[in-house]
Amino acid sequence: MITVKILIDSVEKVKKLTSIISKESADCEIVEGVHIIDAKSIMGIFSIDLTKPVQLNIHSDNKDILDKLKEFIV
Question: Which of 9, 10, 57, 61 has the greatest CB tally within 10 Å of its CB?
Answer without folding.
Answer: 57
